[in-house]
Write a structure and sequence with these properties.
With about 240 residues, this protein is α+β, with helices and mostly antiparallel strands. The chain has helices at about 1-20, 20-25, 110-125, 140-150, 220-230, and strands at about 30-35, 40-45, 50-55, 70-80, 90-100, 125-130, 155-160, 175-180, 185-190, 200-205, 205-210, 240. α4 packs across α5. The two termini are about 40 Å apart.
């Protein structure tokens, strides 16, 4: 792992050196992060972010992050309203991933490679940061809301403290939650927070199940569960979403 980090630091030095003119002209800085096992390089200004990122996937042989394996990732993200709740979710409308070096092209031409990256950065420009007071960050809950919002008229969005958290009063230490009254008159909270694999489901404060956010194909199961709770087609036993479908 340490060897990979050393090589990635060298890649960042290359990026900052070769892209210096376009970064300076656009007022951007390059930042390194990780996501889904990949090293990601993103470009930001104080006012916004480029929709273009560079990704270095994990090498199956455990080798160094390589330009021959790297790709550009263009992501179209815009806020969408969540009904009439006053909340919004930063929705991913589309994504395009393209390799920087085509298979069989031979040795990497570094100057040409960075010329392509610089052109794309100028072409896509900067997407301004849009700050909203009520942002639902959980993609899982957003998709559940869009699936059942019209079927559950009382559906609302709130934040509730994460149980036993060290800083319960901070917004970042709270669950985002979809809340509604179930068929028995109980107050339901379906909870999740960005970055968590699972979130609890409460009925009048008592945990009765979990939302599984490990894969997008669980969204529909969670939406069906919300519908069943609201309309009286579910038992009181502990509900683990992945177990009932």
């Amino acid at each position: 792992m340490r060897l990979k980090q050393i090589y990635m630091r060298k890649r960042m030095q290359q990026i900052r050196h070769h892209l210096a003119p376009v970064l300076e002209n656009m007022g951007m800085k390059a930042y390194l992060g990780t996501k889904a096992g990949c090293y990601y390089v993103e470009f930001e200004t104080p006012e916004g972010r480029s929709p273009l990122a560079l990704a270095f996937p994990p090498n199956p042989d455990g080798g160094r992050p390589s330009w021959s394996e790297a790709f550009t990732e263009y992501t179209d993200q815009r806020f969408e309203k969540l009904g009439k709740t006053g909340w919004k979710h930063r929705r991913e409308w589309g994504q395009i991933c393209l390799p920087l070096v085509r298979e069989g092209e031979g040795p990497v031409d570094v100057e040409e490679l960075f010329s392509v990256i610089a052109h794309k950065l100028r072409h896509y420009g900067i997407t301004p940061f849009e700050r909203v007071d009520k942002e639902l960050k959980s993609q899982t809950l957003a998709h559940i809301f869009w699936a059942v919002g019209k079927e559950i008229p009382s559906l609302a969005i709130v934040r509730i403290p994460i149980e036993d958290h060290e800083f319960p009063d901070e917004d970042w230490a709270k669950w985002d939650a979809l809340t509604f009254m179930d068929h028995e008159g109980r107050r339901i909270h379906m909870c999740h927070a960005h970055g968590y694999q699972k979130g609890p489901i409460y009925a009048d404060g008592e945990k009765i199940g979990e939302i599984d956010a490990t894969h997008s194909h669980y969204y529909s199961a969670s939406a069906k569960l919300a519908y069943r709770l609201a309309h009286g087609q579910v038992s009181d036993k502990l509900l683990i979403v992945t177990d009932i479908w």
